[in-house]
């Protein structure tokens, strides 16, 4: 193939990626029309998703898999950082009140399914989340630090701070190199591309669920 697989993934999923990052919820959050509670609620949803990406038995088995194994890097792990953020945002008893939206539960179920039975599909979800966190996720971190009194790189935004990745640009180049040399045939590559599109769509559904929840709770419907 003349086109690198990482380029193919990015271009083929561009529409779904754009739809996710320009969702009404995210626009309202970054535009200052939603407060820290919405940010905390979004962080809760991320916790459920990243537990599926990092903590399940299926994921542990993938460590030795030739397709997914190279992508499982300890410096990317986010669950401990999310838990520190939630303790800061919601208090010490956050585990007693945290809840997943139905859309988040569907997203988690798909990640778990892929982790258990389809390494290529798991890579698709891994890619859409972690490279997004290293890129556009930094905009969310900046908003939290500037608007809601979260200390720079402190508790509340640690999810977005990759201490083990001192050079994000170089890391992303390395990650795309792994995608370009992924140990799958052309048919499987097309399946992975389709799953990337699905992953972005699942993220969009989570944003829609959050948007609906906060519009219901707002006295002015915003």
Structure summarized in a few sentences:
The protein is mainly alpha-helical and 222 residues long. It is built from eleven helices and no strands.
Task: Please render the helix and strand layout as text.
Blueprint: H1 5-12, H2 14-21, H3 24-30, H4 36-54, H5 57-61, H6 79-90, H7 102-117, H8 119-134, H9 137-147, H10 168-180, H11 186-217
Order of helices and strands: HHHHHHHHHHH
| Overall geometry | globular
Helix fraction bin: 55-70%
Distance between the termini: 47 Å
Taken as a percent bin, the fraction of beta residues is under 5%
Q: What count of helical segments does DSSP give?
A: 11
What is the typical, i.e. mean, pLDDT?
A: 92
Structural class: mainly alpha
User: Roughly how many Å is the radius of gyration?
Assistant: 17 Å
* Main sheet specs: none
Poorly predicted regions: none
Care to count the β-strands? 0
Core attributes:
single chain, 222 residues, mainly alpha, 66% helix, 0% strand, globular
Give a structural overview.
The chain is mainly α. The chain is built from 11 helices and no strands. Helix 4 runs antiparallel to helix 11. The longest helix is centred in the C-terminal third of the chain and has 32 residues, at 186-217. The chain is globular and about 50 Å long.
């Amino acid at each position: 193939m003349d086109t690198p697989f990482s380029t193919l993934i990015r271009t083929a999923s561009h529409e779904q990626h754009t739809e996710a990052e320009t969702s009404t919820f995210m626009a309202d959050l970054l535009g200052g029309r939603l407060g820290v509670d919405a940010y905390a609620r979004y962080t809760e949803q991320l916790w459920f998703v990243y537990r599926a990406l990092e903590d399940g038995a299926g994921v542990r088995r993938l460590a030795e898999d030739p397709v997914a194994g190279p992508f499982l890097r300890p410096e990317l792990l986010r669950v401990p950082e999310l838990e520190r953020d939630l303790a800061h945002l919601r208090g010490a008893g956050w585990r007693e009140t945290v809840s997943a939206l139905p859309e988040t539960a569907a997203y988690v179920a798909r990640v778990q399914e892929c982790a258990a039975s389809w390494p290529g599909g798991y890579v698709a979800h891994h890619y859409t989340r972690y490279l997004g966190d290293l890129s556009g996720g930094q905009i969310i971190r900046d908003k939290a630090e500037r608007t809601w009194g979260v200390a720079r790189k402190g508790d509340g935004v640690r999810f977005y701070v990759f201490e083990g990745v001192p050079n994000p640009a170089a890391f992303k180049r390395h990650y795309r190199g792994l995608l370009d040399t992924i140990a799958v045939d052309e048919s499987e590559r097309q399946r992975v591309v389709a799953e990337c599109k699905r992953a972005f769509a699942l993220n969009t559904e989570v944003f829609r669920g959050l948007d609906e929840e906060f519009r219901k709770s707002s006295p002015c419907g915003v």
